[in-house]
Design brief:
Blueprint lengths: L3 H17 L7 E3 L17 E6 L4 E7 L5 E2 L5 H8 L10 H12 L4 E11 L5 E9 L9 E3 L9 E9 L5 E8 L8 H22 L6 E4 L11 E2 L2 E8 L2 E10 L5 E2 L5 H7 L11 H12 L4 E2 L8 E4 L5 E8 L4 E8 L5 E7 L4
Antiparallel strand pairs: 1-2, 2-3, 3-4, 3-7, 5-6, 6-8, 8-9, 10-12, 11-12, 12-13, 13-14, 15-17, 16-17, 17-18, 18-19
Length: 354
């Protein structure tokens, strides 16, 4: 006898195969087993969230219940609102969290405006649930089919998302393009974040080797960018595979989408900080802290007199940036070699225990 999870998973897989026009055997589904459900954050009551995909990078996002009832933005959406308690008057989750789950089903990283979230229910059960999102263009429909990848293009936009609720407890979902007003965040800044976010998402998917819908990023939206994760114009991003949080990646990303790690494009980051000109935009200590994060977040920069962060550049453009990091288990001497062509390489050497 099949478990409730197996019934829900298999029902969603069959739905995805029908939507994508492929055989069931061509569909992969996550979470694949019940033990992985604890990492899922998009469940709504007993409507469990699933991602299904094919080898061609086509995805379907939605939900299924233990009885095998499937819901998506374009199919049986009323089930989701029933599970959320919208018609019963006892909400099972905050409205902004319900909006976030619907935003997840759209299939891309966009910024939710919490102040825009609004639910209206008439005495006969009809009503609307609305919220607004800002970012790059939405998928062309709400069929649940999404193709991931690339930083996207086009101007920043704002959409109003509306779930129209019917008195028979059915629901439909639509999106409406809104004019951008002067009250919106600065478009140039938002555009830079969107480009950086999309570039890192593509990088994380490749590094982790998992489906794009299963990568959780931080920061997820621009309001999450603080001074602690900035280095001049670069933003620090982290990502984890939601079914195994021990699998993670992190990098600095420049406004043009250049992803910087200890192995790639480090010279581009240092050049943006004027490391070669003698007018660096970051102190040696700050730069050491930010580069240490590329190795392993949590490593402490050592300032013991012997290994203080030191940047030296000769007139011909060659130089070094040397610092040391450590924790209770290890101490590493880090050497960034600066080359005249404004590239850089990063090396580490284990220091003896003290």
């Amino acid at each position: 006898m099949s478990s409730p999870f197996t019934i829900a998973r298999d029902a969603f897989a069959a739905y995805a195969a029908a939507v994508l026009g492929v055989r069931r055997s061509d569909i992969m589904v996550a979470p694949a087993d019940e033990s992985a459900r604890r990492f899922i954050q998009e469940d709504v009551g007993q409507a469990w969230a699933f991602t299904a995909w094919t080898a061609e990078n086509r995805y379907v996002l939605g939900w299924a219940t233990p009885s095998g009832t499937v819901a998506s933005l374009s199919y049986n959406l009323g089930v989701l609102f029933q599970e959320a308690g919208v018609w019963s008057g006892t909400l099972q989750l905050p409205l902004h969290e319900l909006a976030r789950r619907l935003l997840w089903a759209l299939g891309w990283q966009r910024t939710l405006d919490p102040a825009s979230v609004a639910l209206r229910i008439e005495p006969d059960g009809s009503g609307t649930f609305r919220f607004e999102v800002t970012g790059r263009p939405l998928p062309s429909s709400t069929s649940g089919i999404t193709s991931f990848g690339g930083a996207g293009g086009g101007p920043l936009d704002r959409h109003r998302c509306t779930a129209t609720l019917r008195r028979d407890h059915a629901a439909t979902f639509t999106t409406e393009l809104l004019p951008m007003s002067g009250a919106e965040p600065d478009p140039a800044a938002s555009s830079a974040f969107a480009v950086a976010s999309a570039a890192f998402h593509a990088f994380a998917v490749e590094r982790l080797g998992v489906a794009p819908g299963l990568v959780d990023m931080d920061p997820f939206e621009e309001r999450g960018v603080t001074v602690h994760i900035r280095l001049a114009d670069a933003i620090a991003f982290s990502a984890v595979y939601r079914h195994d949080p021990t699998r993670k990646v992190h990098a600095w990303v420049l406004p043009d989408g250049t992803v910087v790690t200890a192995e790639q494009h480090l010279g581009t980051l240092l050049d943006s900080l004027n490391a070669w000109t003698g007018r660096a935009k970051a102190t040696p200590g700050m730069l050491a802290e930010r580069l240490a994060w590329l190795l392993t977040p949590g490593l402490r920069v050592l300032r013991d007199g012997d290994h203080d962060p030191t940047l030296r550049v000769t007139p011909d453009g060659a130089g070094t940036f040397v610092f040391a990091v450590g924790d209770a288990r290890q101490r590493l001497l880090c050497t960034v070699t600066l080359h005249p062509d404004r590239t850089a390489t990063f090396d580490t050497t284990v220091l003896p225990a003290t």
